[in-house]
Amino acid sequence: MKPLMLTILIIAFVLSACTSNASQALDVNNQTLPFRAFQTKTLPSEQAPASQRARSVWGGFPLSLASSALFSSMLSSSPSPSTTPLCDSTEDFCIFRHYFPFQRPFLSNFNTAIEPTYLYGTTEFGALEPHHGVEILNPTGTPVSAVEDGTVVVAGNDAHHAYGPWENFYGNLVVILHHLPYMQEPVYTLYGHLSKITVQVGQTVKAGETIGEVGATGRAIGSHLHFEVRVGTNQYASTRNPALWLVPRTDENGGQYGTLAGKLDNAHGDPIDSTFEAEYYSDVTGSPQKTYYIETYATDIEPIRGNDVYQENFVLIDLPPGHYRIALSTSGKWIERWVEVEAGKMSFVTIVSK
User: Fold this and answer.
1) Between 75 and 1, the higher pLDDT residue
2) Residue 240 β-bridge partners
């Protein structure tokens, strides 16, 4: 081979390699994560006695899965530059500017916090059936607001029509249909256990508009709102974790909380049904200020599942920004992860037990 030809080939090879590396770097910095749902709990000492806690009384049985919608449009393609972009690595975490499309179903002068003792997909550590929604505690008569613009498709009670696994499950309920601009499939929000309904089927409502009042009708203990998000169809089997749809709350100083989501899998990539801890540190050199007890989604009931994109199986919402130490013992080994949570964003971590 002539020297000139050899030189040309070498230059072409080098240029090709550089282009490939640059392309890979762009792919890494713009990747999206699979997203599967997760559940968490607060310290037992912070939980009210069982006789005083308001909650839904759930039972359940396996149902066929309805079609699910991808959530990819709700996930920022660019991780925060402060984190490692290799989010598929079990040693890394990512922080996303996740889009939370819904406001809370109560105005800010009422309680807007999600009850931590019985989160979506959890079983209250084995005491109850897997939960298909979240609960927000407020006294009977508290106005309930629509979380987004939409059309009322259900306004009444379920005494003669089952919107859950059986009749008289939600009591008085409202279901609103939403057509979100970034989703091909319709999204439904369900508001259950109401004492009063102030809208009717076919009515168009705006975000923040009152649609009813808090109660304890149906299968409920104490006054509270049961809130669900359903994707694709208005079916019990089509629920998704509302914690990933409701905008994070703000604290007493006007700062916004953050969200922590993730997946706990075995070596084969299957979700693990487990419980573990996440300790909050405002300063990593000090002591933890709070401990959160995490329960992953139940794995034995088919409709309890994470989003098709993220494939998460645990979620913590309304967390103070700072550092979190995740610790668990599984398969005879101790696993530890440090994750940072930022205000108004979602941190995602993958943990694999090998």
Assistant:
1) 1
2) 229
pLDDT tens for each residue of 73-127? 333 322 222 333 335 445 568 888 888 999 999 999 999 999 988 899 988 877 7
Please write the tens of the pLDDT for every residue from 237-261: 999 999 999 999 998 888 999 999 9
The residues near 12 (Cβ < 8 Å, ≥ 6 apart) are: none
Spatial contact of 214 and 137, defined as CB atoms under 8 Å apart: no
Task: For residue 91, give the CATH number of its domain.
Answer: 2.60.40.10
**Chain length of the chain:** 354
pLDDT of residue 349 exceeding 70, the answer is yes
Q: Which domain holds residue 192?
A: 134-244
Residues 301 and 326 placed together within one structural domain of the fold: yes
> Is 231 within 8 Å of 279 (Cβ atoms)?
no
pLDDT digits (tens, 9 = 90+) for 303-326: 687 887 788 999 999 999 999 999
If phi over 0 gives left and psi between -120 and 50 gives alpha, with beta otherwise, what is residue 30? alpha
Judge whether 54 and 137 are in contact, CB under 8 Å.
Answer: yes
Residue 129 lies in a domain: no
Return the residue matching tokens 């006294």: 139
- Side chain identity at residue 85, one-letter code: P
The label of the residue with tokens 């084969």 reads 268
206 DSSP β-pair partners: none
Q: What is the mean pLDDT of residues 197-207?
A: 98
Residue 15 in any domain: the answer is no
Cβ contact 208:186 at 8 Å:
no
Which of 244, 272, 307 is the C-terminal boundary of a domain? 244
Residues 190 and 232 reside in one and the same domain: yes
End-of-domain residue from the set 197, 215, 244? 244
Query: Does the residue 17 lie in any domain?
Result: no
Same domain, 240 and 266: no
pTM over 0.85: no
**Residue 105's closest CA among 136, 78, 76, 59?**
136
In a domain, 144, yes or no: yes
Q: How many domains does the chain have?
A: 2
